[in-house]
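Problem statement: downstream parser choked on a complex file, so we are re-checking the raw output for the flavin-adenine dinucleotide run. The parser issue turned out to be on our end (a line-ending mismatch), but while we're here, posting the original submission so the record is complete.
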Amino acid sequence: MEANIDSSTLEGLRAGLRGDAYVPGDEGYEEGRTAWNLNAHQAPALVVVAEGAADVVAAVLLAREEGLGVGVMATGHGVAAPSDGGVLVNTSRMRGVRVDPETRTARVEAGAKWADLVPEAAAHGLAGLQGSTSGVGIVGYTMGGGFGWLGRKYGFAADSVKEADVVTAEGELVKASAHENADLFWGLKGGGGTSGS
Ligand SMILES: Cc1cc2nc3c(=O)[nH]c(=O)nc-3n(C[C@H](O)[C@H](O)[C@H](O)COP(=O)(O)OP(=O)(O)OC[C@H]3O[C@@H](n4cnc5c(N)ncnc54)[C@H](O)[C@@H]3O)c2cc1C
């Protein structure tokens, strides 16, 4: 499938982004679409390299207006459905992590890898429920269940999730937890990728 996004739509998007938007032929497009798994070839019509939730909202809204599908990639370790002809939201620049030693919880941005969390948690004598490699994205890993070194004692990473900020398919930024948007929250905890971003 091929889709062309006209230049005024693209310029309008770019003007509102903190991150970048690339279409085929742009410098940055190749890097933006390339997955860690080099067997996964994706040919999106547009790559939005997001710097924050507002960029993700903008990408989803544009996709809706243009009638395009949306894919998400943090590291590309587990590309399931290539976003050919659609909008690929690349979250690899969103790598913030914050550990709260009081509640023994961490808040991570969409593109954070376990390698980002490990030292922050270790500084408080804590560890996350990571798997065999720290190069995997925390969100993608956890949305697929996430079973790692400490799994036999603490279970799936998904079972420890407290809440998530989610951009829905309608382009709304909502909270999901056991008390708010509980159905959505249920789906995030092991439902696999691309159930919101
Ligand atoms: C070398 C290696 C070792 C691994 N070891 C383990 C292990 O020990 N235990 C284990 O449980 N798994 C393991 N995995 C599997 C890994 O957890 C999955 O491949 C996981 O989906 C990778 O997530 P990612 O974000 O890094 O990859 P990505 O390919 O970027 O994302 C994976 C999926 O999640 C979706 N996704 C990512 N971020 C978001 C988001 N913010 N919103 C919506 N959807 C999103 C993507 O669309 C995609 O479908 C391993 C994988 C590899 C390659």
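For whoever reads this later: The pocket of flavin-adenine dinucleotide is lined by residues 71-80, 91, 110, 131-133, 136-137, 139-141, 143-148, 193-194, 196-197 (CB under 6 Å).
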